[in-house]
Amino acid sequence: MRHRNIVILTGAGISAESGVPTFRADADGLWLGHRVEDVATPEAFVRDPAKVQAFYNARRAQLATVRPNAAHLAIARFAARHPGRLTLVTQNVDDLHDRAHAEIAPGPGFELIHMHGELLKARCTASDMVCNWREDLEADHPSPHHPQGRLRPHIVWFGETPLEMDRIEAALQACDLFLSIGTSGAVYPAAGFVQAARFAGARTVEINLEPTTGRRLFVEGVYGPATETVPAFLDTLY
Ligand code: BJW
User: Fold this and answer.
1) Between 84 and which of 4, 64, 92, 211 could a Cys-Cys bridge form, CB atoms 3.0 to 4.6 Å apart?
2) Does ligand 1 lie within 6 Å of residue 188's CB atom?
3) Closest C-alpha to 12, from 22, 26, 2
4) Which DSSP state fits 88?
5) Whose CA is nearest to atom 32 of ligand 1?
6) Which of 72, 116, 141, 154 is an active site residue?
7) Which residue stretches of the chain are H helix?
8) Which residues are known binding-site members for NAD(+)?
9) Which residues in 101-135 are b (16+ Cβ under 10 Å) and which e?
10) Alpha carbon 121 to chain centroid distance?
């Protein structure tokens, strides 16, 4: 075993070949036809809850049409045989990592953190209670948890604090290998994780379709479609 404590950060690129659109692919800056600030901020939800709920309803429904790809499954296979600690931090709100790890049970040192939330969960605006949710949400969806609450998507919007930051920071401080897969590095704090990993002395590798603007922060880069590069790279670790 060349590495004991591993952190893998994933972004939209790992799910692209499953058919889930990435965020920053369009030259016109539109994201599934929306400006990101029209749908992914708390202010947008106050201004136009129907539009925000409809956007997330469509994405939640789309999850039923996609499946984990060879990159998700390669990480799941790796997690099943890695004897050390493996922290998989995903910025993705889809459930494709969850489904891959449900198919191939991970080892005891594995944890999966959805730092930007999950499409298949909803949160009460009054109590912050989180529940599993597969149906559409209405603009003013009453919360089962609190008489004054509404249900909103369990998504971390711009300006909100990402989830599980303490666990992520602890894993980064202890890691000896950091892999960043399919993320543009445009959104913080995830974009800064590579620096924390370098500070810990870790080997740092960017795996992407093409070098990102943050390429210089990584010691190594592996480029090509995730379904090919991720299984091949993980095979080199044993
Ligand atoms: C492939 C591939 C294939 C394609 N194979 N690869 C000014 C300066 C610095 C920071 C800020 C600033 N102003 C504001 C901020 C902070 C802000 C921020 O970073 N803004 C930037 C826009 C500048 N961040 C926040 O507000 C965050 N909160 C925060 O900072 O709180 C303070 C705090 C910090 C730390 C501790 C405590 C408190 C919250 C960010 C929330 C992000 N939310 C979103 C939307 C919600 C989720 C949803 O609706 O789905 O999350 S934004 C969107 O971007 C989404 C993603 O998770 C996130 C990252 O995108 P990702 O995954 O990188 O996708 P893309 O599309 O950008 O890239 C895809 C990549 O894949 C590309 O590189 C392709 O090449 C590659 N690819 N096909 C391999 N087949």
Assistant:
1) 4
2) yes
3) 22
4) E
5) 161
6) 116
7) 12-16, 36-39, 42-47, 49-62, 70-81, 96-103, 165-174, 193-199, 226-235
8) 91-94, 182-184, 208-210, 226
9) beebebeeebebbbbbbbbbbbbbbeeeeeeebee
10) 14
Is there a catalytic annotation at residue 116?
Answer: yes
Q: Closest by alpha carbon to 96, among 12, 202, 155?
A: 12
If we measure between CA atoms, which residue out of 79, 88, 84 comes closest to residue 172?
A: 88
User: What number of residues does the chain have?
Assistant: 238
Tokens, residue 103: 């198919």
Report CA(116)–ligand 1 centroid distance (Å): 9
Protein residue with least CA distance to atom 15, ligand 1: 188
Cβ(166) – ligand 1 distance below 6 Å: no
Residue with tokens 């036809």, as numbered in its chain = 33
Binding residues for substrate: 56, 59
Please say whether the beta carbons of 119 and 93 come within 8 A. yes
Tokens of 26: 């369009």
Q: List, as residue ranges, the binding site.
A: 56, 59, 91-94, 182-184, 208-210, 226
Going through 129-226 in order, the beta strands assigned E by DSSP cover: 130-132, 151-155, 177-181, 203-208, 220-223
pLDDT digit string, tens, across residues 106-122: 999 999 999 999 999 99
Tell me, using a 6 A CB cutoff, whether residue 10 lines ligand 1: no
Query: Is 192's C-beta closer than 6 angstroms to any atom of ligand 1?
Result: no
Please tell me the distance between residue 127's alpha carbon and the centre of ligand 1 in angstroms: 26
List, for residues 25-73, the tens digit of each pLDDT value: 665 556 667 777 788 999 999 999 999 999 999 999 999 999 999 999 9
pTM attached to this predicted model: 0.97
